[in-house]
Amino acid sequence: MNQAEVREFFDGWATYEAILDQEAMHHTAFFAAAASALARDLGARPLAVLDLGCGSARHAARLLHGRPITAYAGYDLSATALAAARTMLTAVGIRPVLHAA
Fold first, then answer.
1. Pseudo-torsion of CA 32, 34, 36, 37, nearest 10°?
2. d(CA 101, CA 42)
3. How far apart are CA 62 and CA 24, in angstroms?
4. What's the rounded Cα separation, in Å, for the pair 48 and 67?
């Protein structure tokens, strides 16, 4: 796929959300492991987060909810996903800085 085709796919965000809903890419298991590692290794220490390919941040928002976040920078190809990420992260008290890659 060329870059234009990749952007077109990801801007059709509903398709990607359906993939996430079906757990086809194992995001739930990955983020469960990440949550365990954060709790075990960092406790309640504040975090600065760099999220490359943040998408809609639906999993990251759940992972980070309730944790002290000093900064969150997210990058994604999809403007549609970044708009959703802003909503998701703001809803859990994170003030994201988002960038279109």
1. 160
2. 29
3. 19
4. 11
